[in-house]
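Researcher: Here's a chain I'd like modeled. Treat it as a single chain, no partners, no ligands.
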Amino acid sequence: MFKKKKTFVLIIIIFIITLALNICARFKAFCDWYTSRLFRYVSYPLLRFSGLFSVSVGQIIIFLGLISIVFLLALLLGVTFAKVFKIETIKLKKMLSYLIRFLLIMIAFESLIITLNCSIPYNCSKLEVDNNKNQEKISSDYKADLDEIRRVRNMLLLEANSLSLKLKRDNDGNIVDDGNLRQDINEAVRSYSIIDQRFSLYVPDYKSPLFSYIMYESDLIGVYFPFSMEANVSKYLTVAQIPYTACHELSHLKGYMYEGEANYLSYLICVNSDDDLIRYSGIIGVLRFIDNDYYELDPQNYENDIAFNNLVIYDMRYYDAGVYDEIEELEKVLPIKKEDIHKAGQEFTDTYLNYYGASANYSEVTSLILRYYKDCDEI
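Model: Modeled as a single isolated chain. Structure tokens:
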């Protein structure tokens, strides 16, 4: 009885702390201070723990949660059945008590962790990053004119066309990395801490989860787990897309929650790297947004402007042809329809974004990058 009482007292204390933090999260000044000053230290222990494992700890937590719920329903059914038929239920009730306490503790701790690692950073002010060249502020509300968009788009496209010719490829034209891509990406992110202190301390490697198929059907190429502090990148991605996607998700780990802002940080991390593949990935990663904005604003001149070479066009795809064959074979043995997975994934993403009052504004990166180059006097 004493142990049970201590457990519930602990759960209540954790929920009270979580509630208090969520109240504080309503104040931007607190969120800004926490995310810029404390977040990297608060998240450090969990980052280190999750980093000990090559597999995604988050997917294990999700799996254990689902199994526990199924087991809970089975025990409840068993207790009900035993009462109806007047069968001894002491052992079942004991198991049920332990399971309920386990689930409550799990929910309490995860609620606190998600508040610290997601809810508070999500309520920060919109991104303001020091430009390392002139120390002026860059704000995501910057509005550029058409000529600025065209010039930055063409500058990046010329660089992409040039880099595409330097990269090592196989006989089918696919980019081949040197086998150290994961380490090279990690080094690029850690090196960026010279410019942005949020990236100081520990930077874990990105992970390729087993549930990449669910990500594929949910239209996700990467996902951030705040409850395990992990950056997950789909195992199906082409080599050209991995660095930019990985740096995007790792930016979430450092408190940049909004998608446009994570795109922007990912770009800066990539282009500050000495590795041609990482730089190339960052450039083509943002080119799809800037190029699309240029086309929508001025389709007539777009058609007569600098064109993508065939290699860049090829590298901008997310998946190889072989991936679609692999997925098609997998779908033949899955007990769940892909349409149901897709719908559930979309509903989860929409609910998540709506809860935090955010939107999947990936193209916000255009205004951030244009302002960055304007302040550098490069446009």
